[in-house]
Specification:
Elements: H1 2-6, H2 18-29, H3 34-38, E1 40-41, E2 47-48, E3 84-90, H4 94-106, E4 111-115, H5 124-130, E5 140-145, H6 152-162, E6 172-176, H7 178-185, H8 192-205, E7 212-218, H9 220-223, H10 229-249, H11 254-259, E8 261-267, H12 271-290, E9 304-308, H13 320-334, E10 339-341, H14 355-370, H15 385-407, H16 411-416, H17 419-436, H18 456-459, H19 486-497, E11 504-509, H20 513-528, E12 533-535, H21 543-553, E13 557-561, H22 567-578, E14 583-587, H23 594-600, E15 604-606, H24 612-622
Parallel strand pairs: 3-4, 3-10, 4-5, 5-6, 6-7, 7-8, 8-9, 9-10, 11-12, 11-13, 13-14, 14-15
Antiparallel strand pairs: 1-2
Helix pairs in contact: 4-5, 10-12, 10-15, 12-13, 12-15, 13-14, 19-24, 21-22
Amino acid sequence: MSDNQDKKLFDDFPPVSVSDWEELIRRDLKGADYEKKLICKTIEGIPVKPCYTPDDISGLDHLRSLPGEYPFARGKKTDSNDWLVREDIPAADVARANDKALDSLMKGAGSVGFVLDGSKTYTQKDIARLLHNICLASAEINFVCDNPPENLPEILDQENVARGGAVSDLHGSVEYDPLGTLFTTGNYPFGEEKAFGAAAAMAGYSPRIPRFTMINVNGTVFHNAGGSAVQELAFAMASAAEYLGRLTSGGLSAEDAARSIRFTFSAGSNYFMEIAKFRAARYLWSRLLEAWDTPPQTAGRMVVNAVTSMWNKTLYDPYVNILRSTTEVMSAVLGGADSVIVLPFDKPFRNEGASFSQRIARNIHLIMKEEAYFDKVIDPAAGSYYIESLTSSLIGESWKFFLRITDEGGIPEAFKKGVVQELIGETAAKRDSRIATRKDVLVGTNYYPNPGERASENAEGESFWPATDAPGETVAAPLKLYRGAQAFEELRLKTERHGGEPPGVFLLTCGDPVMRKARAGFSSGFFGCAGFNIIDNPGFDTAAAGAEAALESGASIVVVCSSDEEYPEIVPEIAVILKGKTILVVAGNPKESADRLREAGVKYFIHMRSNVLEMLLQFQEELGIK
């Protein structure tokens, strides 16, 4: 018994090196290229291996510290992993906004963001009304604004004092981001000099209310323009460096300037990459502050608000957005975000979200806290060979982009030159291509569509990102904020709005039972993405019987679903019976017989390598759907 206690697990097995594993894999691949088969590159350009070992993280700089220690890659939290449940509320109507804020706080939120209306002038009375009955010591208060009310920090300070509150009670932010306005509209909110002057004035007040930040670095604009995690990090750091430079040149100390800045990042769908992104962000911020000689244990404690991605949310099958948001929140909290906003699942077509969708968004947080205990474990990603390696890769790649922007003269100059737009545009084009060819799946939109769904009524009120008029003459082309699903959604909406019944797609299944079933399933999903009416069939004994049934159905498109070997025989027979009365399509890519089939009357071939979006647009054009 004592002998067994001295043994360790797997002592009876000889150790196996990484090179041994890789040699075995290469033998199993039978000559296929290991790099091409098993190593993939992310949209960030980071290679991902099939497995990771301790060798992959040996010597990584960020592993030398514990949670709460510089440079904070492992987080600044040392007693729990708790985060604030935040909900943003439109504040054009201050009384209604206050009611909604109180309701949210009573139902589990710990932070509210009042989204101020840029066309409205807010008085001290308005701000007091927004904060009516809200306990400032218990709730984080944030103001999201392009044009902050004059003396807003002083107003908040006075409101707190009037209530008898301590300085430490007032915590939250003024999320003023003139650079973000430049990126999304092409110009500063009210001229460059005044915009940064307002930032300096507010930041100068921050030492009096030290738990309140005044400047927001908004990385979501890069993410929601189609940028990568590397670009979001790099451009956010470049923006932060610009704010630091402006504030310190105006007389503010580097430490106070750093304390007055908070960051907002998107939480995207690439689960492990997003966890690593939040960890890498803290490391980069700490290293960046070294250039300003700030005390690392104070100014380096980055404040991060996370927002679930809007880029991957869909108008069709919108309940899937709940699932997407769930994994995104997990990434954000496991990565150590301080607060998290879960956008309502109906955000693509309802700007404010219905009460039901807002409740679901709030409850995603609460389940993770109260049932899954995600708030209990500090830095739960620690020690994961994969995540630690990703964190290091993101740090290195983001720093390269940051230095490139620095060489351009800083991010405002790089943006005016179009460098930022070009870099993000290249990444967005890759993302769009992957969605169009269905290499990247958006469930319910470009894969597994619900054929009976109609979204026209919802889409009438779709918000996406409302067009924002540039404040005056633009100094650069703004970033285009959009959702990856929009091209497919517009395609399907055209079908819905065309009038009458959608075009029928007859699946002419015959021949090999396995192949016809597989290709019928593929074809159903392919044409379902455009909202066409799919007419499926269990299979026909002969090609002629299938062709006659297709004519009788009145379908606009007939897709022959069989095996490549059978197509040369059955397709010409089908084409003769159809006599050009429908669009004839073959499911598959029979290269050897393709020319013969075209001569017989086949116009299109659909297969796994097709650009689904482009082909469906061609079908719509041929059918007169505009």
